[in-house]
Amino acid sequence: MTKRILLKLSGEQLQGDFSSGFDPKRAKWIAEQIRPAIEDGAEIIIMVGGGNYVRGNQIIGHGIQPVSAHNIGMLSTLMNAIALTDVFNDSNLPTRALSTVEINQFIDQYTFRRAISHIQKGRVVIVACGTGRPFLTTDTAALNLALEMQCNAVIKTTKVDGVYDKDPTKFSNATKFDQISYHDVLTNPDITVMDKAAIGLAMEEHIPVIICDLLIDSNIARAARGEAVGTIIN
Ligand code: UDP
Fold first, then answer.
1. What are the tens digits of pLDDT across the range 118-148?
2. What is the pLDDT of residue 190?
3. For residue 86, what are the CA distances in angstroms to 19, 114, 220?
4. Does residue 19 carry a pLDDT above 80?
5. At CA 35, angle to CA 105 and CA 177, rounded to 5?
6. Quick one: CA torsion of 213, 50, 116, 7, rounded to 10 degrees?
7. CA geometry: angle at 118 spanning 113 and 120, to 5°?
8. CA of 70 to the centre of ligand 1 (A)
9. Does the structure show a pLDDT above 60 at 1?
10. Taking a C-beta distance cutoff of 8 angstroms, is the pair 226, 232 a contact?
11. Which atom of ligand 1 is nearest to the CA of 74?
């Protein structure tokens, strides 16, 4: 069975060692992490975040309307998608970017058929602008897209290698879960690894979500193969 995977990449992960913006070296690393998954026969669709530039909530106020702020947040994801697509193609990882918001001058508009057509040609598909609607995050957009594209699993890469009972960067006695239920993630206020709306969607539609460290070599390919890495939420 071919595995179709939705990979959620946060903007923060694309800034690499910079304090903001886009680090091509990090993007190249990600391309090399995705390549073995494609060689294994996996199909990869990426929902890219924009937090390395702007999250809507950060700039609301002083005259900036909430809708404008979220639109600017979505434009941040577009910048990432354009840059990431170039780096992937330059690394000989055939990739196409699609935007859920009409901005044809920059990249093609997302449609289900267009995405499927690229995937059938063995290309990675990167989707920009989340759902195209304000007041949401790219986590929720990722789950929504995974359902639309009938993905077998969602992989969200993070800075730590899974879900912990408390923040492992603050508490040395934090314990990692190998597996955790959607319900436990939803009801535990200390677990903030993914938007609750996204987890709610995953729970309703029974789609597994794997949380793993982007910077551990082979994590993405192993997770795509179904090996135990990080934490699986199911
Ligand atoms: N955004 C939005 N609708 C969506 C997805 C994203 O309005 O469907 C906006 C929102 O303001 C968000 C920003 O785009 O803060 C960037 O996305 P996100 O915060 O999810 O990026 P990440 O944290 O994953 O880098």
1. 999 999 999 999 999 999 999 999 999 999 9
2. 87
3. 22, 19, 20
4. yes
5. 105
6. 10
7. 90
8. 7
9. no
10. no
11. 14
Q: Are 182 and 202 in contact (CB under 8 A)?
A: yes
CATH code (residue 102): 3.40.1160.10
* Ligand 1 in reach of 131 Cβ (< 6 A): yes
**pLDDT at residue 53 tops 60:** yes
130 lines ligand 1 (CB under 6 A): yes
What distance in Å separates the CA atoms of residue 145 and residue 76, rounded to the nearest whole number? 18
Q: How many residues does the chain have?
A: 234
Domain count, the chain: 1
What pLDDT, on the 0 to 100 scale, is given for residue 168? 87
156 lies in which domain range? 4-233
Structural contact between residues 131 and 140, judged by C-beta atoms closer than 8 angstroms: yes
b/e per residue 117-151 (b: at least 16 CB within 10 A): ebbeeebbbbbbbbbbbbebbbbbbbbbbbbebeb
